[in-house]
Amino acid sequence: MSSNPAYATILPAEMEMIQTVLDDAGYDADVLAEDQSLFNAAALLVMKLFLAGETSPYALSAQLERNFGAPTKDSAPYKPPLPRFAIQGLPMMPGRETPTLFYDPDLQSWDNEGGAVSRTRTRSTYPLRRMVRGKGPGNV
Q1: pLDDT tens for each residue of 39-84
Q2: How far apart are alpha carbons 88 and 114 in whole angstroms?
Q3: Percent of the chain with pLDDT over 90
């Protein structure tokens, strides 16, 4: 079949120009890996146009954009809202600052509620024996 004169011969320089048109239009190895049918359709269109006599790289890329639109690439890959160590429950990564804890005395004074650890109580200025001692006949 390759000896059939109906098939046109494409020179290596022309094939390189077609590959450059596809690369510049965004149809490169990334598109081939993600969606092979889209890459094949774009390459087939460019080859048909080239064999029909369209040899201008600008016209070929304009036809690609008109038929398939400009391929969009994600500007930034997906980033989860929480870092990996927070999701997995791992300790903070070294080199990062530890978050400061919020201190509120009302939160720290929960007694017998199973909440925060109670803070140390201040001692009264009166000794205990003075409070226990009453005004009886032996205590004056």
Answers
A1: 788 889 999 999 898 889 999 989 988 888 876 665 566 676 766 6
A2: 27
A3: 8
Contacts 24+ apart (CB under 8 A), 50-57: 50/10, 50/14, 50/18, 51/8, 51/10, 55/14, 57/17, 57/20, 57/21, 57/24
> What is the pTM for the complete model shown?
0.45
Task: Compute the half-sphere exposure of residue 115: CA atoms within 13 Å on the CB side of its CA.
Answer: 12
Residue 47: burial class (beta carbons within 10 Å; 0-12, 13-18, 19+) = middle
Give the single-character DSSP code of 54. Answer: -
Which residues in 94-112 are b (16+ Cβ under 10 Å) and which e? Answer: eeeeeeeeeeeeeeeeeee
Burial 1-39 (b: 16+ CB within 10 A, else e): eeeeeeeeeeeeeeeebbeebbeebbbeeebeeeeeeeb
